[in-house]
Sequence to fold (185 residues):
Amino acid sequence: MYAPRLKNKYKSSIATALKDKFAYKNVMEIPKLLKISINQGVGAAVTDKKMVDTAVLELTTIAGQKAVPTYSRKDISNFKLRLKMPIGTKVTLRENNMYEFLDRLISIALPRVRDFQGINDKGFDGRGNYTLGVTEQLIFPEINIDKVSKINGYNITFVTSAPNDQQSRSLLTHFGIPFKKPGNA
Fold:
C-alpha cells in the first residue's frame, strides 16, 4: 500500500529522534503533525464574484483536495460587505494529502521564493502550532502563470500535537522546514 515519503520518514526516523531528544516515556507523547490548514482571503471578491471561484480552483489545484469558499459573518458597510458574501477560500489537509502537500511545499515551492533565506520562526502560537504566510501563489508549480489574473497569498497553518513551541519547531525542522538561522534576521 502507498504511503507518502514524509510519512515513512516520520515513522522511521523523526519519531525516534524526537523521543531521544525530549526523553518521552510513552510513544503517545511524541508530537505529530495533525493537519495543515490553508486559507486565503479574497478582498476583491466584494466587487467581482468570479474572484472567489478562481481562488477556489487555484487552491484546489495547489492542495490536491477540494477547497471551499468562506463567507462573511456580518455586514460591514465601509467595506461594502454583506452577510454571507463569499470572501475567501480554505482547505484542511490530513493524512496522506497533508504529507504530500508538505513534501511539495518543502522541496519545490519554498525554494522558488525570491531571495529565500529560510522562513521566520515568529509564527508559533504558544501551543505548538505554526502559521506561515506565502505572498504569492506562483511559487507552486501547479499554477499556470498565464491563467493568473491576480497575485494572491495564503496562510498555511501546521497544527501539531506538541504541547509547546520548542517541541513543535523541532518536529517541523526534522520534517525539513527551513527556519532562518538566528544570525539571518
Q: What stands out?
A: The beta strands are 33-41, 68-71, 86-93, 130-134, 154-160. The chain has four helices and five strands. The two ends are 43 Å apart (CA to CA).
